[in-house]
Specification:
Radius of gyration of chain B: 24 Å
Oligomer: heterodimer
Strand content of chain A: 15-25%
Radius of gyration of chain A: 15 Å
CATH superfamily of chain B: Porin
CATH class of chain A: Alpha Beta
Strand order of the largest sheet of chain B: 1-2-3-4-5-6-7-8-9-10-11-12-13-14-15-16
Largest sheet of chain A: 5 strands, mixed
CATH architecture of chain A: 3-Layer(aba) Sandwich
CATH class of chain B: Mainly Beta
Strand order of the largest sheet of chain A: 3-2-4-1-5
CATH architecture of chain B: Beta Barrel
Distance between the termini of chain B: 27 Å
Largest sheet of chain B: 16 strands, antiparallel, barrel
Shape of chain A: globular
Number of strands of chain B: 16
Largest interface: A-B, 22 and 36 residues
Number of domains of chain A: 1
Number of helices of chain A: 5
Structural class of chain B: alpha+beta
Number of strands of chain A: 5
Shape of chain B: globular
Number of domains of chain B: 1
CATH topology of chain A: D-Maltodextrin-Binding Protein, domain 2
Chain lengths: ~130, ~375
């Protein structure tokens, strides 16, 4: 029975996994969904505090990736690829570097005051600040 | 040889040791098509299945020289050009601020909504953008382009200014300048541009015709002015475009209109437009497009009225020569008149991010000449990395 509850809660937590948008702890900016979307889509190149932004994505196939792309960027994986192909082939920008796991994103964000990333809300630790969850 | 040289310079760009950050991207559009009837031909296709007219392969190398300065080169091979690779873009960009940049070199001319990614089939739902609107001779310029983008509230907006020159075959466009503006709010996008240039296009046949008819200047004094109009010499060409798009994710609808005007030349002013709509069902995007292009016959007629179509000098040979020369000019003017439309139904299937498969059928109609009507079937794959 206990295992049952555990399994069920695991399933529900997977189904309803929140995605946390994280920045360096020294970054005190408040960011709404539009700003976060602009920071990730090369439309806003610096944080409101003036620091140049280094967005970090998660690799295709990670749980938080589709969640973030859909909820925050309002784009499917294909649409996002199409969006970036337009910017890449006009020399206007490159897609964010994609890291392989939540842990890599957390440690990269913790190490860079200009970084912003997204991970599964359960992967966040004290080394980074959560600006929003979706 | 051209290819070898081009590859060599790409290689040297890659090997450039001072450049810290090199990015290589590429795209491929392999598009094959055929018309359904033996005697039909349209957009470079006939009844034999053919990959050449619209297939394009490209490789882009971008090097960030510093945080503000980057160099971009795009090597493109087109099936219509026997896949002879050439540098379609090669420019340096300097970021003036977070909102503006200036690019110099060979850059894309932002004439249309999809100009920036014209060759990247993956970035739009069609196999190729509607020919009625996008079928222009010049898409790149050698010059400078200034890009500005910003946002205010829920709106994102941008502007581009450019100046330069271009060549395409015998056509030379000088003093090419223009300004474009674009605004986006959530699912709504609007963009517009005005550009103009001086066109020069030497044509031996036309010059021969001109010299011949000019012999009549003692009889018809206005003939030199009349024939001069027919030569494309420093003629001003204006270009206007307006595009509106609504993209609600589950469905989208868009329209684009262009007007091309030729001053001082009996080349008909063109109006072209399309309207397109589609729906997204997961990986499937069925879509439909209607396009139309029409030129203004009055625009040509005024030039032909500058001289009489027949003269009567009393000498039958002289009168006959004049008539046939005049008819020659009338035929040249008439050849610039277009009245075509096309309906395209297609399906895009997204296999995975960066890879799409498409199929389209196009019913093409030429109201100026029914013999050009055709039904075109095309399939293709788009790949980008």
């Amino acid at each position: 029975m206990k295992q049952w509850i555990l399994a069920a809660s695991l399933c529900s937590s997977m189904a309803f996994a929140d995605v946390a948008v994280i920045v360096h702890p020294s970054n005190g900016d408040a960011l709404d969904k539009d700003s976060i979307s602009r920071l990730f889509l090369n439309k806003m190149k610096a944080f409101p505090n003036g620091t140049k932004v280094v967005p970090l994505a998660l690799a295709e196939g990670q749980a938080a990736t589709d969640e973030f792309n859909g909820k925050v960027l309002n784009k499917s994986a294909s649409q996002l690829t199409a969006f970036w192909s337009k910017l890449v082939f006009t020399g206007k920008g490159q897609p964010p570097k994609a890291l392989g796991s939540d842990a890599e994103v957390v440690s990269a964000v913790a190490a860079d005051p200009g970084a912003i990333g997204y991970v599964d809300a359960g992967s966040v630790d004290g080394s980074v600040r959560v600006v929003a969850t979706f | 040889m051209k290819t070898k040289l081009a590859l060599l310079s790409v290689a040297s760009l890659i090997a450039m040791p001072a450049v810290a950050d090199i990015k290589i991207n590429g795209f491929a559009n392999l598009i094959g098509g055929m018309t359904l009837d033996d005697d039909e031909a349209v957009y470079g296709y006939d009844s034999d299945f053919n990959f050449e007219p619209a297939s394009v392969f490209g490789l882009q190398v971008r090097g960030d020289v510093s945080e503000k300065l980057s160099a971009t080169a795009q090597l493109v091979g087109r099936g219509s050009d026997d896949y002879d690779a050439s540098f379609e873009w090669a420019y340096m960009t300097y970021a003036l601020s977070n909102n503006s940049s200036i690019s110099a070199g060979r850059v894309r001319l932002p004439l249309f909504k999809y100009s920036a990614s014209l060759d990247v089939g993956y970035s739009y739902h069609w196999l190729t953008p509607p020919q009625s609107v996008y079928g222009v001779l010049i898409n790149n310029i050698d010059g400078v382009r200034y890009d500005y983008s910003n946002y205010a509230g829920d709106w994102e907006y941008g502007a581009q200014l450019f100046a330069g020159r271009s060549e395409s075959g015998t056509l030379e466009a000088d003093n090419l300048t223009g300004i474009s503006f674009e605004a986006t709010r959530d699912w709504f996008n609007i963009r517009t541009i005005y550009a103009q240039a001086k066109f020069n296009s030497p044509n031996e046949d036309l010059e021969f015709l001109t010299n011949s008819i000019n012999q009549f200047s003692p009889i018809v004094p206005t003939v030199t002015e009349f024939s001069k109009n027919f030569l494309i010499e420093d003629d001003t060409v204006g270009f206007f475009e307006l595009a509106v798009n609504i993209d609600k994710y589950d469905w989208f609808v868009g329209a684009e209109y262009t007007h091309i005007s030729f001053d001082e030349a009996p080349i008909a002013n063109d109006d072209a437009w399309y309207i397109t709509a589609g729906m997204r069902f997961g990986k499937f995007t069925p879509h439909i497009t209607y396009e139309h292009k029409e030129s203004d016959p009055d625009d040509v007629a005024t030039y032909l009225n500058d001289v009489p179509s027949t003269i009567s000098t009393g000498d039958a040979v002289t009168d006959g020569t004049w008539s046939s020369l005049y008819q020659g000019f009338a035929a040249v003017a008439a050849s610039t008149l277009e009245d075509t439309s096309a309906l395209t139904a297609g399906l895009r299937y997204d296999v995975e991010p960066g890879f799409a498969v498409k199929g389209e059928v196009t019913w093409f109609e030429d109201d100026a000449n029914d013999a050009n009507d055709a039904t075109l079937l095309r399939v293709g794959v788009n790949y980008t990395f």
